[in-house]
Amino acid sequence: MRSRVLDPCSIVRVQSWDVAATPPSGTHQVVGVAWPREVGAVASGLDEILCIGPTEWLVLSADLKLGELRRALSESPFRATDVSQALARIELEGPEVRESLLKGCSLDLHPDRFPANRCARTRFAGLPTVLRSWGPSKFEGIVPSSYREYLLAWLADLSDPV
């Protein structure tokens, strides 16, 4: 399995205190994709939105205008917080990636249960992680930035034959 740190991008956490609320219609114009409501769904368009809880999403973007998103969410129960500096994205790839990931988390990663464009919160290698599937042999882990080097070392140890 190969791992590498992905280039930085804007990561915005959007949260709501109302589980029944729907995002205002103006958010679609800002993020360029329909807002996913199903936990674990990933919506891709100009930006990407990962639904990581019933009232929590991560918006990943190369060019997100946070002010525009905040204006679109104003007067609603949704709030947007820039967490770009707090989180790091690590790509995990290779034919054995699913088996390797199972050594660090307890998710059912069978392709039928965790197909492409799915995400889940979990603990991976003891770290709070958002794990996203890109396909049969490619994943992305979003972890606290302060643990990036620890996770890369953990993954390197995992890949080294004993």
Structure explained in plain terms:
With 162 residues, this protein is an alpha+beta fold. The protein folds into two domains: 9-82, Heterotetrameric sarcosine oxidase (Alpha-Beta Plaits, 2-Layer Sandwich); 86-159, Probable tRNA modification gtpase trme, domain 1 (Gyrase A, domain 2, 2-Layer Sandwich), CATH 3.30.1360.120. The chain contains four helices and ten strands. The protein has helices at 26-31, 66-73, 97-102, 148-159; strands at residues 2-5, 10-16, 42-44, 48-53, 56-61, 78-82, 87-93, 118-124, 127-135, 138-144. Strands 1-7-10-9-8 form a five-stranded antiparallel beta sheet, covered by helices on one side. Strands 3-4-5-2-6 form a five-stranded antiparallel beta sheet, covered by helices on one side. A hairpin with a 2-residue loop joins β8 (118-124) and β9. It is elongated, with a radius of gyration of 16 Å. The model has no long low-confidence stretch (mean pLDDT 93).
User: Please, how many domains?
Assistant: 2
Please identify the top-level CATH class of the largest domain: Alpha Beta
Number of helices: 4
Largest sheet: number of strands, sense, barrel closure:
5 strands, antiparallel
Please give the radius of gyration in angstroms: 16 Å
Strand content: 35-45%
What strand line-up does the widest sheet have? 1-7-10-9-8
Roughly what is the average pLDDT, rounded to an integer?
93
Approximate shape: elongated
Task: Note the gap between the termini.
Answer: 15 Å
Number of strands: 10
